[in-house]
Amino acid sequence: MISFRHRSGGFAAAAISLVLVHCASVSADALDDDSLNEVTVTATRTPLPVDQALASTTVITRRDIEAQQTLSLQDLFEGEAGVQISNNGGLGKASSMFLRGTNSDQVLVMIDGVRVGSATLGTTAFQYLPIDQIDRVEIVRGPLSSLYGSEAIGGVVQIFTRPPKHDGVRLQADAAAGSHSTSTIGAGVDVAKGPLYYGVAASNLTSNGYANCTGAPYVSPASPGGGCYVDDPRPDGFHDVSASAHVGYRFSSRLDVDATALRAQGGTRYAGSYTNHQSFAEQVESLAAHWMPSASLRLTAQAGQSRDDEIDTLDFVEPPGNLFDTIRNDASLQADWTIAKRQVFTVGSDYVRDTVVNDASFPVTARHVTGVFGEYQGGFGAQQITLSARHDDNSQFGGKTTGSIAWGYRLPDALRLVASYGTGFHAPSFNDLYYPYFGNPSLKPETSRSIEIGLDQDLARAGWSAHAYETRMHDLIDYNNPLFMPENTDYARIRGIELQGHVLAGPWSASLTGTWLDPRNLTSGSSNYDKLLPRRARTSGRLEVSRRWPWRLRSAARVNFAGPRYDDLANSVRLGGYTTVDLLMELSLAEHWTLQAKLANLGDRRYETALYYPQDGRNYLVSVRYRPAEH
Q: Which of 97, 329, 388, 530 has the highest Cβ tally under 10 A?
């Protein structure tokens, strides 16, 4: 859809997944590579070194998370290639991710292989997911509906909770304090001895926050106000208590089972006249079993559940119509077969059931989707190719078929040329379809077609990439009519260029990301024809320079920048661009102990990524961590 959506709250999304995977042992050797680079499992649904993935992929490790000294996913994602964030005023406030310029509900989000997000709103509450429980994040840019089905138009974000990594017992702990009476404390333990491994972790994050909205109160039709529609100078606090656990057992080198669980709950205050507080609970569980009946085959069974429960109140008194609970059940069967060296064939099937419990009297409270897919990954000398196709049968609107093809060619001097084409779709949410007096049950899915071409070079102490793409989206859901009823009327075209680079020179290191974006509304006959889609800056990126000093000290300077954007479809409300500078320090105090400090937004830059919702000014954070050395 072209019109943007605010996350308003109420009880929302949940999911259960059951995954049975019959797959090949896709190893570095199977793909003729001995690289020690990071591995992605999201780009192809099979383990693959990142430098072999034909899809544009970013892996953010636990070490990266700690080095950035951030307390939220929205801050972690800022400046990543192809990613822009809109935030309604600080920690715990409504946040939207625009991946390659697509809408926030056109990005599939998973945790440990389980689909998460609200089935009523169609988006994911990134602001509530606890960063202290995350081991790594994979961001795959570009259409992946041919592997995952609905929502994966802009790409897929998969979050992995902390797994065991070493034999023995590993303790870890951290604590931090900063501006706005912000504090966090967490601890965890991982145990791996023989065939059994398990671990638990917990954390608590609290912040008094700041006044998150400068909204103008409603006075008259001639002065309708905006934002939160109130003048409320009180600080808007946030608290989040989270815990995670995992346990597994290796019966043999060919068979193992493991389970993971994550829960976060708390509340956030915001300015408002109808509601001003949201209580939430985010929960995900999964159970998986892996079996390799032969050297080239592997079976995986996974079951899980994710919940996104939210309720809005006015000074803790609930107005009517604010309960939106959803449960998502899904099951998958996948078979990967290494038919020859560098030749992997995959087939599979997914089942998803969404159920909604609410007090808004939705006429339909459940739907199910069955999808079947196939994928081929092949290597021929310097060439690489990936083909995939999928068909989804949705009980609400019927069938939808998607596909993709990607090609790569290794050139001299460690250069690689890649090109791809793919289609995607996004199923309408329950709010779009069935919200009383505003839903439209005859909506069709939004669809997309994308092309991409890129050039990469990965050298011993430097690397860079440049990728250009175009996405055309049809049947976008639009609310701009007198009855405010959703309709499949809009069409958009997004063009973009992503640049990334890094270099190491002695004790110095530097990295750069840059994104140029042209997201256009091209709906024929619309008054907004040729306007930019709202809340997307045309330029954004990040530059970071760091140095390692004697005395086990590391310092860094990070510059985040974004150009101006518009807050509305008509491009009549302009939000200015901004540049912020962060200074970071990290000192190894003693074995396993680290002291960190960050001074963010050094110049006290005042800016907004959503109208009336200011971002934080100059702020600081001091952290201490205990981490065993990596072996």
A: 97
Dist CA 392 CA 615 (whole Å): 40
Distance in angstroms (rounded) separating the CA atoms of residues 48 and 53? 7
Could you please report the per-residue DSSP string of 487-512?
EEEEEEEEEEEEEEEEEEETTEEEEE
What's the predicted TM-score (pTM) here?
A: 0.92
- Counting every residue written for the chain, the total comes to 631
- Average pLDDT over the chain reads 90
Amino acid identity, residue 476?
A: L
pLDDT score of 8: 36
Q: What is the pLDDT of residue 37?
A: 61
- Let me know if 67 is exposed, middle or buried by CB neighbors in 10 A (0-12, 13-18, 19+): middle
**Structure tokens, 239:** 């608290």
Cα–Cα distance for residue pair 204/243, rounded to 1 Å: 9
Name residues of the chain where pLDDT drops below 50.
Answer: 1-36, 631
Angle at 14 between CA 11 and CA 17, to 5 degrees: 175
Among the listed residues 619, 548, 627, the one whose alpha carbon sits nearest the alpha carbon of residue 75: 619
CA 515 vs. chain centroid, Å, equals 17
What is the reported pLDDT for 26? Answer: 35
Distance CA 266, CA 319 (A): 19
Residue 550 in tokens: 């004697």
Instruction: Give, in order, the Cα–Cα distances in Å from 372 to each of 302, 348, 611.
Output: 17, 6, 42
- Per the CB < 8 A criterion, the answer to whether 168 and 194 are in contact is no
Where are the strands (E) in 396-482, listed by range? Answer: 398-411, 415-426, 446-458, 462-478
Predicted confidence at residue 360, as pLDDT, reads 75
Compute the distance between CA of residue 74 and CA of residue 96 in angstroms, rounded to an integer. 8
The confidence score (pLDDT) of residue 630 equals: 59
Within 10 Å of residue 458's Cβ, how many Cβ atoms?
Answer: 16
The residues spanned by each domain of the chain are: 12-626
SS3 assignment, position 75 = helix
Q: What b/e readout covers 384-421, taking b as 16+ CB neighbours within 10 angstroms?
A: bebbbbbbbebebbeebebbbbbbbeeeeeeebebebe
pLDDT digits (tens, 9 = 90+) for 409-441: 999 999 999 999 999 999 999 999 998 888 899
The phi, psi pair for 276, rounded to 5°, reads -145, 15
Tokens standing for 296?
A: 């080239």
Q: Domain 12-626 carries which CATH code? A: 2.40.170.20
- Which among 15, 8, 11 has a CA at the least distance from the CA of 280? 11
Return the pLDDT at 218. Answer: 82
Q: Label residues 500-524 b or e (16+ Cβ within 10 Å = b).
A: bbbeeeeeebbbbbbbbbebbbbbe
CB atoms within 10 A of CB 294: 11
Beta strands 324-340 and 12-23 are parallel
Task: Indicate the SS3 state at residue 90.
Answer: coil
Exposure class string for 580-605: b at 16+ Cβ within 10 A, else e:
bbbebbbeeeeeeebebbbbbbeeeb
* Identity of the amino acid at 206: T
Write out the H or E segment, with its range, that includes residue 434.
helix 430-434
Give the chain's largest Cα–Cα span: 73
Helix ranges restricted to H, 323-412: none
Q: Enter the tokens of residue 38.
A: 């990071």
Cα torsion 358, 360, 365, 371: sign = negative
Which residues, including other chains, have CB under 8 Å from residue 385's CB and lie 6 or more apart? 376, 377, 378, 379, 405, 406, 407, 408
Look up residue 77 and give its DSSP letter. Answer: H
Query: Can you state the percent helix, strand and coil of the chain, rounding each to 5?
Result: 5, 60, 35
